[in-house]
Structure formats: C-alpha cells, structure tokens
Amino acid sequence: MVSGQWAVVGGLEVREWRIGEWRIGEKNWGMKTVNVDDAIEICRREKRFLENIIDMVPESLVVVNKDLRIKKANRTFYETFQNVTGRSLCDILQDKEGKLACELTRLFGTEDMLEKFELHYWSEKLGDLTFEITARGIIHADAEEAEVLVVARDRTERKMAEEALLESEEKYSSLVESTEDSIYLVDRNCGYLFANKKYLSRVPLLTGKVKGRKYSEVHSKEETKRFADKVKEVFETGKSLFYEYRNPRDGRYFVRTLSPVKEPGGIITALTVISKDITNRKLSEEKLEKAYQDMKATTAQLVHNEKMSALGELTASVAHELNQPLNNIKISSQSLLRDINKNRLDINALPQDLKEVVEQVNKMAGIVDHMRIFTRRLEGMNMEEIDINESITNMFVLIGSQLRSHNIPLCQELAPDLRKILGDSIGLEQVLTNLMINARGAVEDFRETGRIIEIRSFMNNENEVAVSIKDNGGGIPSHIRDRIFEPFFTTKPPGQGTGLGLGVSLKIIEEHNGRIELEVEEGKGSMFTIILPIAE
C-alpha cells in the first residue's frame, strides 16, 4: 500500500501514514494512528462481529456469482438446505422452470432489486415450504466480479394462514349467499356496506352498487326511523337485539337480529343485520290462536251445556223451593181476601201480613236470581277473593231440597275462618254441584237405606284450602278410575248423562291452579277432594 492511499479492510477505511503504522477510522470519525498489526486485528474482530450478526439472521442470506453458484452464505442457509456443495442456488431451491435464474441473471452489473418472488420447495426433512425471494445486484470495479445478494424468507406459516383465511372467507361467502336469510351490514348512519343476494332479491330498488346507499332510499320514513333507533341502541349498548318487522310491500313477516361488528380494541365499526322470514310461522301461530279461541268457545259451550244439564236434574228441587213461598203467599192472600169480603179486615194486622208476603217474594226472587247467575254463560273466569264456605252455602240453595226429598242426610263440617282463595264463585259452585249430583247418584244406585253424604272444608296446609265430598255408595271401580275425567265418559245409560260433569269440573279447578284428588274404598264409597291455593 502506497503512502497517502485509502483502502478498505474489514469495512474500515484505512490509510497508510508511514512504515509500520496506519491511521484508522470511519467517515466523520476522528482519526488515530495505530500499529499495522493492531489494525489488522481490529479488522478481523470487526469481520467476526459482522459474520456473527449475519449468522443470527433468521432468513437465508446467499451471495452468488454469475454462474449462480454460492460464494458466501450464512448459517441459516446451510441449516435449512442440504447437499449444497458444488450446486447452483437455483438447483438447490428447485427452480425447475428457470424463472428465478432468469430474474437473478438480469441483476448482475446493476443495483436493481427483485422483490417478493414466491418459490415452492420440498424435502423429506422439511416437507412443503414456501419461500419469498428478495435479491439485489452488487457492483464491483471489475465487472467479472459482479455478485447478487439473495435473501430467502420462509413464508410457509404465513402462506398457510393466508390459504386458511381465504378458505374461511370462501366458506363464509358461500354460507352468506346460500342462506335463505337476508344478511347485510350497515354503518352508524344506516348506510349499506354489504348485502347478500337474498336481501337484494327482496329489495328490488337496491340495484347496482350497494355500498354507500342509504337505508332510507328503499324504506319509508317511519320504518327508517324505527330502524335507525335500533341501530343507535346497538352502537350505544354494544349488545345485540331483535324485533319483528312486517314488510309493507308484500305483507311478509320477518324477525331482524342486529349484532355489533367490533374491532380488536372493542370499537364498533358496523352492524350485521340478519332478517329471517317467519311468515309461515306467523300464519301458523295465527291459525293456532284461532283454533285456541274456537276451542275456548267450544269449552265454554260445553261448560254451559253441562251447567244446564245439572240444572235440569235440579228442576224438581227448584220447583219445590219456589212452591213453598208461593203457597205461603197464596194462603196469606186468600186470608186477606176473605177478611175483606166479610168486612172484618184488621187494619192493624195488615202491615205484618204484607211483610210476610214480601219476605216470601224476596225468597223466591233470591232463588230465581241465583238460578240466573248460575246459568249465566261464562266467557272467562271472574277471579276475586272469596270464602269457599260461601260457595258451598250457595250451592245448597239449588240442591239442598233435592237431597231432602231423596231422603239423603247431609253431614256438613265447614271450618270457620278459612283463608280466602282467588276464584270464580259461579265456576266453583258448578264444580260443587256436579260432585254433589254424582254423590247423590252413587248412594241412590248402591243403597236403599243408610244413605249419607259428607261435605267438609278445611285447611289442607298453610297455603291450600280444601273441600271434600264423600259418599257411602259402592265406590268407583278400579278399571275405570283413570277415565272418569275424560270428556263424554259416563257409566250411565244413554240419555241419562252427558259424561261432561267431571271433565268440566277438572278444567275449572285447573284454571284456578288447583287439583282434584280421588280416594276410593270399593263397597264403601268415594271421596273427591278439591284443593285450591290461597289468595296471595
């Protein structure tokens, strides 16, 4: 090296100053004089430092000559690729079509770059790999020494992730487009961001480009406001919601579900709207509701018919109950007429006589009024707080004389101060009447003498009131006990029973959230117990 010349050693600028000494430094650094041997050692250390850094790089770094053979490479390259000695880089990287060789060749003698060249590689050890190749030409003073630096980055995992994402997107797209539901995305201002084909087919006004169009363009002001309020609620709360909507264009019913679309930071950027056609379900519900109302009306008619049937059985008893006050009125009236005709009317006794007539009229009016109320057709239960003992007492207005005329003693044991229940007094009276008629029939069919019916009211427990009606008939046979509450089931001869009494009674009690229990001793009688919850 001639004194006064610059040279590069190990990446450092070195200038010979005098024999046995160099001045060493880098651009813009202060210069200092060092011994030649020391300078060489510094250069060697610098070279090893740079080589260690290069070896630590996770990508494969290779310098190739014009023959595309390897001049230098880092540790990552040698650890990744096997049997590289004497082979060209393109042969090692399995560039079978020669595309990489062509791209690298054009870089020699230039500082041009090759970017993002994708190459597939396979080996028994590593399997299928995907590399991204980046390269750049390196210029030398001697054109024959031209080189190219090649960087090979393993992009296998990213490639697999991209393929998986693409596959997922294709599946999502297929799912969104194949569903029968309308799916679309809107922003905070109800602007469309996306709409699937099903939605577009249902909204013919949305033609061409959807993104950027407004919801208000294809819906009425009222519907737009309603939808905007829902969108605002989801953006503010971050929670999904759903509601029913009827399309005014075709009358079809939909249930819409609005769900937030959130970025990783939790910021809501859009809403997904899924609109499901529920027209068939809605029509089915309407038919079901109509069938329920028809059944309800039919049931009310059956209850009314059974009530009339029960009243028919009590006609003789009612006539007897009315006949007694009528006879009293007749006797009083005839006595007054005789006194008038014989001019012996006692004016002082007249008020008392007329008072007795009024009392008998009131008694008849009470019976007739009770019959009117009892036979009233109920459209629904009139629930109110009542004392079950009052329903029992009212029941005997119609059936009491019948039991007496049939020579059937009645044993009553009504507990005082019972807790009130929430019930319909007329409905409960009908149930009690049905059970009493059945008990009367049971003792009459089984016994000539010794007939008796017992009725009790009591607290079944602290939350329930109970009424039991017990007869000493023959008892219900075991083979029909499971059927006695079935509509139209009866053991009576044709024309003597509808078979509705117990079925109607059970329905009325169930509407009171109660139940009916049965206890039977064959040959000794049956006991029905009505159990009802107390009023809260």
Overall strand count: 21
CATH superfamily of the largest domain: Histidine kinase-like ATPase, C-terminal domain
Main pleated sheet: 5 strands, antiparallel
Kindly name the structural category: alpha+beta
Rg measurement, Å: 52 Å
Number of folding domains? 4
CATH topology of the largest domain: Heat Shock Protein 90
> Distance N terminus to C terminus?
113 Å
Output the strand order for the largest sheet. 6-5-9-8-7
Overall pLDDT: 79
CA-based shape: rod-shaped
| Residue share in β-strands | 25-35%
Question: Mind telling me the CATH class of the largest domain?
Answer: Alpha Beta
Question: What helical percentage do the residues reach?
Answer: 40-55%
Secondary structure topology:
Elements: E1 6-9, E2 12-18, E3 21-25, E4 32-35, H1 36-56, E5 60-64, E6 70-73, H2 75-80, H3 89-92, H4 99-105, E7 113-123, E8 127-138, E9 147-154, H5 156-178, E10 182-186, E11 192-195, H6 197-202, H7 221-237, E12 241-246, E13 253-262, E14 268-277, H8 279-313, H9 315-341, H10 350-375, E15 384-386, H11 388-405, E16 410-414, E17 421-423, H12 425-446, E18 453-461, E19 464-471, H13 501-511, E20 515-521, E21 525-533
Parallel strand pairs: 16-18
Antiparallel strand pairs: 1-2, 2-3, 3-4, 5-6, 5-9, 7-8, 8-9, 10-11, 10-14, 12-13, 13-14, 15-17, 18-19, 19-21, 20-21
Helix pairs in contact: 9-10, 9-11, 11-12, 12-13
